[in-house]
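Dear Dr. V.,

Thank you for agreeing to look over these. As mentioned in my earlier message, I'm a first-year student in the group and I'm still getting used to reading structure tokens, so any feedback on how I've presented them would be very welcome. I ran two proteins. I've put each sequence directly above its structure. The first is here:
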Amino acid sequence: MISIQVLHHSKIENIRKLIKEIERVLTSSGIIFVTVPKRIQRASKNIAPRTYIPLEGLDKGLIHYIFNKRLLRKEFNNFRIQRIWVDSNNQYCLVGESKK
């Protein structure tokens, strides 16, 4: 399963539901690759803890939940996390495996 710059576009409650659905449909030993932004854009409105809406740019008006490494590990705790790193675009990247 691949999610590049998509998973973070909601409030954390909905993201958790999505992660549970990924767990449900992913096959035994299935692999996930997820990228999420490391920071929020400067011009943005805070609507909840770690949750923002950019006020300009391509993502204007779209909800963004901002993860850090600890939160990625917490929310994907039902996966065997192989690696988390920051790429050249300043995005967190996560590779994990289903525990089924």
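The second protein is here, in the same arrangement:
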Amino acid sequence: MLRTQVIDFQGNKIFYMDFTNLKSVNEIVNVMNEAKSYIFKQPPSSVLALTNIEGMHFNNQVKDVFSEFVKQNKPYIKNSAVVGVDGLKQILYNGIMKLTGRDVKAFSTMSVAKSWLISGKKN
């Protein structure tokens, strides 16, 4: 089952990456590779990205692969939002943002995140 897809939200294309409930680094990296195959083919600063990490296992190894992924896709991203940052993930998430120089806005629900992404507001 593909965990990435382009979704239409109020006439706007949002690239959705679903990491929900993934427990192994290999599963997480597979989704990242799937995402890269789409993102890296897009024009610079054009992708509205939505990432869901609800229930995903997070440790230092996952932090490292996410940091690299976020750095690599930066040139292609117009705006980015994430859902599922809670508890201890918040600490690792903050670290990733500092390491990568990115400011991916965190939201509590998918619908709020999608609305924000298409609003044109920048991170």
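From my reading of the second output: The helical segments are 25-39, 60-73, 89-100, 110-118. The longest helix spans residues 25-39. Does that match how you would interpret it?

Kind regards,
E.
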